[in-house]
Amino acid sequence: MNLPFLLARRFRKSREKTRYLSFISASSTIGIGLACAILIILLSVMNGFQKALETDFLSMVPHVEYQAAQGGLKDWREIVAAAEQHPGVKAAAPAIKLSAMVQQPGRFRGVQLRAINTDLEPAVSGITRYLPADEWRNFVANPDGILLGKGLADALQLGLGDRINLIIPQLQQGNALSAPQRINSEIVGIFAMGGELDFQQAYIHLATGQSAAKIATEAASVRLALHNVYDAPRIAREVAGDITDYAFIHDWTRTEGHLYRDIQLVRTIMYLVLVLVLAVASFNIVSTLIMVVREKQASIAILRTMGATPKLIVATFVWQGSLNGVVGALLGSAIGTVAAALLPQLLGWFEQILNFSLLPAELYFISSIPSDVSVRDVFLVAGVAIATSVLATLYPAWQAAKLTPVQALRGQ
After folding, report:
1. Does residue 15 register a pLDDT over 60?
2. What is the DSSP string of 206-243?
3. Cβ-based burial of 193 (10 A; exposed 0-12, middle 13-18, buried ≥19)
4. Are 201 and 365 in contact (CB under 8 A)?
5. CA 20 to 30 Å from 41, out of 122, 212, 335, 356?
6. What is the DSSP letter of 388?
């Protein structure tokens, strides 16, 4: 193994005197390194989006929810008890979902109200993570209080202590509309998740929601939080088998699953791009080695007359070509890893300077580009780059091994 490697290094040093070959060789190394760096950054961004979906967005969206088919649930406690017996369920809590309009002088704004039980809600959602602890305590202590998203509060120019009017439509039998219910609430807390939910959701107390919805029971739905969010469809069906109430079954893969599918689709495309880009970059290695073989025909003839086997010649040129790929893959992977780790801070800095948002919070589920560097992705990109580089050397190396001393000297 040492002799082919030493010969490859010797050939590389002597080739540095030929500027054209050196340029082609350097371009192949730079191309592979650049491809590795860009792909690691892109895959890290996809990992960041998936992590943000799992830990942030889905902390505010029910993993599984059972909604009463009509009116309210007969006994939400029975459903909570049945759900919490399942090993995949972390916690369960009752709720009432309402569509409402926020009425301000001269304008209206739609909002999705969730009436919650303040004792059980923190176990199934991340609402307490996105507002100060004292504001949550004020909400718990104030039955008429409301928690408003920061985006909605800013759009309506509202702050803590302000009072807002909520207009809640009412349906009678036959889905006929009746006079809307009006609620006057004090803003006691403003949560900031940093995404579209800040413009869409608000929270009130369960008793207030029951009165506004005019249902006889305490709750109209039960929300489940799961240990593994990707088990939601299966667990939703299994828990539903223990529920005696008539209820619609919802899970996040039906309501928000398009986000996860989009992320996985882009990730798959990135893996395809990885192979294609590295294959294109490896063509430079092929062309470089073919020219090196022609340049080193005399050296090949001397080695063959001294007893070098075709296997030794193949190994020498495989090493010589692979060094370009190895150097490019290692440098590119290192640069890509550092750049991916610093990407959120760099983009945040540019957004501040240019006063421009890449992800408007009112349109996307997060408001900043995330990044999560995966060691597996780094090794995968580097490994594919090195493997592609080695494969690219096989044909030129095989052509070099086929040269006989007479053919090599005749070609000089």
Report:
1. no
2. HHHHHHHHT-SSS-SEEEEEESSGGGHHHHHHHHHTT-
3. buried
4. no
5. 356
6. H
